[in-house]
Amino acid sequence: MSIVRMKRLQLIALNRDKEALMAGLLHAGCVEVGEPSAGEEDWGQLLHRDTSALPQARSTQTELKQALETLNRYAPQKGGGLFAPREQMAEEALLDTGALEQALALAREINAHAKAIGACTARETRLQADQMALRPWADDQIPLEQKGTKTVLIWLGTVANTVDFPTLCGAVEEAAGAVEIQRLSADREQQYLLVLCHRSGEAKALEALRSFGFSFAQLKELTGTAEENLRRLDGELKETAAERQRELEALEALGQRRQELLVAQDRVQQVIAKESAKERLLTGGALLVLEGWVPVPETGRLEKLLAEYDCAYALSDPTEEDYPQVPVKLKNGPLSRSMNVVTEMYSLPAYNGVDPNPLMAPFFITFFGIMMADMGYGILMILGALFVLMKAKPQGGTRNFMELVLLCGISTFIVGAMTGGFFGDFIPQLLKIINPDSTFAMPALFTPLDDTVAIMLGSLVLGAIQVVTGMTVSVVKKIQEGNFIDALFDEITWWIILAGVGLAIFGIGTVAGVPVVLTIGGLMLVFGGTRKAKGLGKVASLVGLVYNGVTGFFSDILSYVRLMALMLSGSVIASVFNTLGATFGSVILFVIVSIIGNALNLALNLLGCYVHDLRLQCLEFFNRFYQEGGKPYQPLAIQTKYVDVIKEEQ
């Protein structure tokens, strides 16, 4: 279990073979196409960046996404869902460009229906607004286009609802004489008026009306009466609603073809991968230049592929200067690959670093089980993880996470069996309700409440083992790099000091009352801690080394007390809910309260145990040896989200 060694690939091929070569690399899935080490400025006028159809592919992806969003909104999927198994598909079928074009046509049809629905919605909004504007004038039997006769003016307008209508009528008639005012309707804010005025009194009538806040109605250029227009608008609304319903029914029918769009999403993703890789090529005339990285175990497959083309290539080991750019691929087995979830969340190791997964897996899984420590919770975790793994058959990171949940569930069950926890003290409490004389207790090697000190000491011992393991990895790594002196004085010295302290406690290894091993360790600490300093800096270096070494070592180990704390808190919370449920004296109420309480406790502990376990690995373990900063290995390969590809060997 280690970091996979990489080879740099440098390739010169014929431009005519570009499409076939990129398709072959996509099928092989073992080459990460990188930026050329010699850029365009180095090649001068000979080579230039290759062009690609990436914008067009991304546009296709956008259209497909919009179509899926439309179906999810107007024709949501029924059944299946999150745990539905993925469709199995041959690689050749996935890369079928004709099928992608058909799916794109389907997406455009769906998007056209969505656009039509949007137009219907906008039209309905406009028609409803027109209705609202006309409804107050429904009692006006005069055509709206009629503005008056040779002798009479016709006005439509409004005044505030607070205006006294009789007072307004009297004031206007007194000012203008021949005026008739009708109140057609009123609402909480306004009164809607029809004013018939003799042309001779126009100016005076307007002056009187405006003194009451009269304003002319803002109606569109309509013909016919308000009632006729309202009937017309009502008919147009019904037609629009029917058209909208037809579009919705069409979308619902097209919703049966959702899988075509999902598969097309995977299809276009392969096109995007190839076109993105093309943009990192250099071309010119009849040649193309490609550089990248290939794992050493995959070089045979690559060489077999390249033998089919007229090309020249070289595979070389990366230099130390290349290490920051070399992609990192972790080679893990079924147990340790679940730790990729933790490693990728923190940071991948540097190419010249150490793969932490095999070292971390036993500790992480064991620590999680210790903190949860309940058979019931472990069973639920195991069943949940198995359900997802067997039903949905997830891939990649989701699969790794569910495998981690499964392993932690097994650990939780085992430790729970050792502590006698099954949803806290659920069984003894239940039996006590059924038979008050029951004295049944779950068998246990130790219990969190009765053996707290022993559990705390065990946690510290486990912490010391993990810390020493991290120091051991650091020692081995430094020796492999030829830095034995650093390993001797940075880690081995402390081991000698700790061994000396232990021997001195038991009175072993003393000569004339002097603890020999401890004295040797102290001398090594003085020399090693000051060997790179000068003058008074030696004193400061020694003080800093002793302080940081002692406090750092023991504070790291003390952090593992959280294993005991979380085990104790989870057990106590479960017992509290069980005791609360038992106070009712009813089996049914007890079960209900216990289920609710244990569900909350499980949710809290799943998050808390994961976070604290993660903290112990990242802060207490990794800081001993871990060198982060690795760049993830991202080969040009078939990667899907909605289908499982059956790969065909060439």
Task: Map the helices and strands.
Layout: E1 2-3, E2 6-14, H1 18-28, E3 32-34, H2 40-43, E4 48-49, H3 54-74, E5 87-90, H4 91-94, H5 97-134, E6 152-160, H6 165-176, E7 179-186, E8 190-198, H7 202-211, E9 215-216, H8 226-254, H9 258-278, E10 282-284, E11 287-295, H10 299-306, E12 311-316, E13 327-328, E14 330-331, H11 340-346, H12 357-372, H13 375-391, H14 396-419, H15 426-434, H16 452-480, H17 484-505, E15 510-511, E16 514-515, H18 516-530, H19 537-558, H20 561-582, H21 587-621, E17 631-632, E18 643-646
Helix pairs in contact: 1-10, 3-5, 3-9, 5-8, 5-9, 6-7, 12-14, 12-20, 12-21, 13-14, 15-20, 15-21, 16-17, 16-19, 16-20, 17-18, 18-19, 20-21
What does this structure look like?
This protein is an alpha+beta fold and 650 residues long. Among the domains are: 2-79 and 265-331, Alpha-Beta Plaits, CATH 3.30.70.120; 145-218, Alpha-Beta Plaits, CATH 3.30.70.2750; 335-448 and 562-628, no CATH class. The chain contains 21 helices and 18 strands. The protein has helices spanning 18-28, 40-43, 54-74, 91-94, 97-134, 165-176, 202-211, 226-254, 258-278, 299-306, 340-346, 357-372, 375-391, 396-419, 426-434, 452-480, 484-505, 516-530, 537-558, 561-582, 587-621; strands at 2-3, 6-14, 32-34, 48-49, 87-90, 152-160, 179-186, 190-198, 215-216, 282-284, 287-295, 311-316, 327-328, 330-331, 510-511, 514-515, 631-632, 643-646. The strands form 6 sheets. Strands 2, 3, 4, 10, 11 and 12 form a 6-stranded antiparallel sheet that branches. Strands 7-8-6-9 form a 4-stranded antiparallel sheet, with helices on one face. Helix 1 runs antiparallel to helix 10 (299-306) and helix 15 packs parallel to helix 20. The radius of gyration is 40 Å and the shape is extended.
